[in-house]
């Protein structure tokens, strides 16, 4: 979620030379050192995983979004190019310079959360429980999940960037207004970031790996990467992974306003999120949850699971540069993409679709494209779009929702448009699927997510081929 000023880090440290330190000398191998001849060095073509115990497939998808809770309906709305951005009415936003977002309305946990918990849980947790259980249903695991899988080898890894922000804000207000005795006993459990994974596992009876990752807006992809590696290492057969977020509350909106990160296009909010457009002025807050069921191919085939797509690999790293700004040279992002492709066993030439991070910020959009260009030398065969143009930036949940959009592109052969492309930056050489959906047979797709702190993450998907 690289979003803020274009100024370099004011605290960048330049070390002072140490006069007592000996100068470095270049290593020269002696006749006793083995040094292979250059002619003997060969570059092997990347190889995809073939072991069915280590191949990771997607068998279920679940979400909560501004377009509802059904992945098919969600993607249909995206293909139509509809905007889910409206004026906020959960609270009075009039005093804020930004008064709109991708606010979810009419949400209900009925059938997925018992009535008492549905009334008192933070929305961050409610979204996770509904999206997670829908993903499990979609994977044909359903209510009798523990009779179909080994629950000790089935885990949950759902992260959040902000945690239970409403629970936190309410507790602080109670402390200020009435003192500590009026703080809810649920304040801590509903605020900490690991509780989404914990509650989902408790409800499903899953006893495998269980924790959360919080890397701001890169959270979901970090979770997919870590969850898949549990399967690859033989530590789990099934992992439920993704992200959840519910930060459209006064303190959340106010915080990002203070960061000067948000668009202020209050007169026309549906066109406010405009990735790569020359008139973009900041991102738009969104919310929701996006969760996948990841499974080893061997396990999925044994239980005759519906295999939707294949997770080929991924990578995570850090810019090590600035709290909010991207590296101007794109090194962090480009190296993350390269490592992700290496982990997936695919070459850059095989990739023909990118679901970009594309937040609609002045510096972030171009920085991402510059980094992508370093990896993919020929942009002519690659299409790239921005899901956030329609649903806003869902922070820790954005990668989860965008992974579902990426997978739907793989399975349907249709790419959703990047809407609000009125005057695209001339330096963007990629086809950004402007304003209208496009038919496109996806070979290999990558989905990018980046977060404050310089956290970079890339996941790689493809249509499943036995």
UniProtKB/TrEMBL annotation:
Classification via SUPFAM superfamilies? Thiolase-like
The residues responsible for catalysis, as annotated, are: 217
Which species? Answer: Saponaria officinalis (Common soapwort)
* Descriptive protein name: 3-oxoacyl-[acyl-carrier-protein] synthase
Lineage, broadest ranks: Eukaryota, Viridiplantae, Streptophyta, Embryophyta, Tracheophyta
- Gene Ontology CC entries for this record: chloroplast; mitochondrion
A GO molecular-function annotation: 3-oxoacyl-[acyl-carrier-protein] synthase activity
NCBIfam families this protein is in? fabF, PRK06333.1, PRK07314.1
Pfam families named in the record: ketoacyl-synt, Ketoacyl-synt_C
- Cited CDD domains: KAS_I_II
Annotated region described as Disordered, given as residue ranges: 1-52
Catalytic activity, as annotated: a fatty acyl-[ACP] + malonyl-[ACP] + H(+) = a 3-oxoacyl-[ACP] + holo-[ACP] + CO2
The cross-references to InterPro entries, in alphabetical order and at most eight, read: 3-oxoacyl-ACP_synth-2, Beta-ketoacyl_synthase, Ketoacyl_synth_AS, Ketoacyl_synth_C, Ketoacyl_synth_N, PKS_Beta-ketoAc_synthase_dom, Thiolase-like
Q: So what family is this one in? A: Belongs to the thiolase-like superfamily. Beta-ketoacyl-ACP synthases family.
Q: Which UniProt keywords apply?
A: Acyltransferase, Chloroplast, Fatty acid biosynthesis, Fatty acid metabolism, Lipid biosynthesis, Lipid metabolism, Plastid, Transferase, Transit peptide
What exactly does this protein do?
Catalyzes the condensation reaction of fatty acid synthesis by the addition to an acyl acceptor of two carbons from malonyl-ACP.
Q: Which GO terms describe its biological process?
A: fatty acid biosynthetic process
Is Lipid metabolism among this UniProt entry's keywords? yes
Span of domain Ketosynthase family 3 (KS3): 53-463
Name where it's found: Plastid, Chloroplast
- How does this protein assemble? Homodimer.
């Amino acid at each position: 979620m690289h979003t803020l000023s274009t100024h370099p880090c004011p605290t960048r440290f330049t070390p002072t030379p140490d006069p007592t330190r000996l100068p470095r000398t270049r290593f020269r191998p002696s006749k006793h050192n083995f040094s292979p001849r250059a002619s003997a060095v060969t570059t092997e073509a990347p190889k995809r995983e073939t072991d069915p115990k280590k191949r990771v497939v997607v068998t279920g998808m679940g979400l909560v979004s501004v377009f509802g809770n059904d992945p098919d309906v969600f993607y249909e709305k995206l293909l139509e190019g509809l905007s889910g951005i409206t004026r906020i009415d959960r609270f009075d936003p009039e005093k804020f310079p930004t008064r709109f977002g991708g606010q979810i309305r009419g949400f209900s946990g009925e059938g997925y959360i018992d009535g008492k918990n549905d009334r008192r849980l933070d929305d961050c947790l409610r979204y996770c429980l509904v999206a997670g259980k829908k993903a499990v249903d979609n994977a044909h695991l359903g209510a009798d999940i523990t009779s179909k899988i080994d629950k000790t080898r089935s885990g949950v890894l759902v992260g959040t960037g902000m945690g239970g922000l409403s629970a936190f804000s309410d507790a602080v207000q109670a402390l200020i207004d009435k003192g500590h005795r009026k703080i809810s006993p649920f304040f801590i459990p509903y605020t900490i970031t690991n509780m989404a994974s914990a509650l989902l596992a408790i409800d499903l009876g899953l006893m495998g790996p269980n924790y959360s990752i919080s890397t701001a807006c890169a959270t979901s992809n970090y979770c997919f990467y870590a969850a898949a590696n549990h399967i690859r290492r033989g530590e789990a057969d099934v992992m439920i992974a993704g992200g959840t977020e519910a930060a459209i509350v006064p303190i959340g909106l106010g915080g990002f306003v203070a960061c000067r990160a948000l668009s202020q296009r209050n007169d026309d909010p549906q066109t406010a999120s405009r990735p790569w457009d020359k008139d973009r002025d900041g991102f738009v807050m969104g919310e929701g949850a996006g969760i996948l069921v990841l499974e080893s191919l061997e396990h999925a085939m044994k239980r005759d699971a519906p295999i939707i797509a294949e997770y080929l690999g991924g990578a995570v790293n850090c810019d090590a540069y600035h709290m909010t700004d991207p590296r101007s040279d794109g090194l962090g992002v480009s190296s993350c993409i390269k490592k992700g492709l290496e982990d997936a066993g695919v070459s850059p030439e095989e990739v023909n679709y990118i679901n970009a991070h594309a937040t609609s910020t002045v510096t972030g959009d171009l920085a991402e494209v510059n980094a992508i260009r370093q990896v993919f030398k020929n942009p002519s065969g690659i299409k790239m779009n921005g899901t956030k143009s329609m649903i806003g930036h869902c922070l820790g949940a954005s990668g989860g929702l965008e992974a579902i959009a990426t997978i739907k592109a793989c399975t349907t052969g249709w790419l959703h448009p990047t809407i609000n492309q009125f005057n695209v930056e001339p330096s963007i050489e990629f086809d950004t699927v402007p304003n209208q959906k496009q038919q496109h047979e996806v070979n290999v797709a990558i989905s990018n997510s980046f977060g404050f702190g310089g956290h970079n993450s890339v996941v790689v998907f493809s249509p499943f081929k036995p």
